[in-house]
Amino acid sequence: MNQIGVLMTYPMFTHLEKELENRYKLFRQWTLQEHELEHLLEQNAHMIKAVVACAEVGINKKMINLLPRLEIVATFSVGYDKIDLNKCIENDIKVTNTPDVVTEDVADLAIALALSTLRKICVCDGFVRKGLWKIGDFSSNVSFKFTGKSVGIVGLGRIGSAIAKRAEAFNCPVSYYSRSRKLNNNYKYYTNIIDLAANCQILFVACSLTEETRYIVNRDVLNALGREGILINIGRGLHVEESELVSALLEGRLGGAGIDVFENEPDVPDQLFGLDNVVLLPHVGTSTMETCTEMANLVIKNLEAHFKNGPLLTPVL
Ligand code: NAP
């Protein structure tokens, strides 16, 4: 086992790094400058059979070409939009992800973002922390109710369904847009995102990122959601046309936004920093100790299954 080399693309989770190090010869891509990485690959590409990727750093065609012995890419994420799947198919490289174990956390965070945005929790917290409560009155700064608001969900998959279930507990009527109608619920189905946005007060983006869903939330969708509408994005930054989101917020055409994912992470448009109706998170949908541990264990089990020629637990390819 020690002769198998594993390239980890990004510092995702210390427990995973340690577990990989215990089993394989581990190479850490993020610690290297480009020329150092090239040198490392010249020396070690023959032994690197696995890449452990994540939502932040996947693997592109160029890197795959530099790894002729690559057999498997195991991503520490559900989304695999940063992995060149076509190239993996072409080179007969397996791909695994970490579905299901992340669902509850991401849905929890989506609801937390809706509550924080509507109830201005971060603004209230800042008011107390800055010592402003002692010298000023906050009572005129009223917030908005979450319970009972109509919720629209883009992508009623694992995470979208978990958001819907939570929203139901808040007495929110739920509707959704996906490529196909789901028959296992009574939520209202819209055949397009504009109609969904026009008929809900809070729009959650929870679909996977593909060529079709890139910029699925554009100016027209934001205008349909409207000046009292709230956008919550826990999908991927590229689902939302960020420059349009910024202008909609600055011009008061959108009521507010709670965002965990951005177009050019870790860069966030600084025009958003001064807005009270916006909550900004550094892509932490799955970042609980419990879920990261489960994701790490799934990555390890997929690698072990692969190198023992067993069935993969959560194959994408
Ligand atoms: P999933 O079960 O595969 O659900 C994806 C949903 O996207 C499906 O309901 C699918 O519905 C919908 N979809 C795909 N293409 C679409 C299109 N063209 N138009 C409308 N809907 C479309 O995946 P999941 O586990 O719920 O995860 C969803 C995404 O959440 C991931 O891909 C990832 O990008 C993101 N995520 C973010 C975080 C975070 O930290 N913020 C963490 C985990 C996951 P149909 O097939 O019916 O269209």
Descriptive notes:
The protein has 317 residues and is an alpha/beta fold. It folds into 2 domains: 5-99 and 290-307, 3-Layer(aba) Sandwich (Rossmann fold); 103-280, NAD(P)-binding Rossmann-like Domain (Rossmann fold), CATH 3.40.50.720. Helices cover 35% and strands 15% of the residues. It is built from 11 helices and 12 strands. It has helices at residues 14-23, 34-44, 61-65, 85-90, 103-119, 121-129, 158-169, 193-198, 219-225, 242-250, 289-307, and strands at residues 5-8, 25-28, 48-54, 72-76, 94-96, 151-154, 174-177, 188-189, 202-205, 230-233, 256-259, 278-280. Strands 8-7-6-9-10-11-12 form a 7-stranded parallel beta sheet. Strands 2-1-3-4-5 form a 5-stranded parallel beta sheet. Helix 10 (242-250) links the parallel strand 10 and strand 11 (256-259). Helix 1 (14-23) packs parallel to helix 11. The two termini are 23 Å apart. The protein binds NADP nicotinamide-adenine-dinucleotide phosphate. NADP nicotinamide-adenine-dinucleotide phosphate is lined by residues 78-79, 99, 102-103, 106, 155-160, 178-180, 206-210, 212-213, 234-236, 260-261, 283, 285-286.
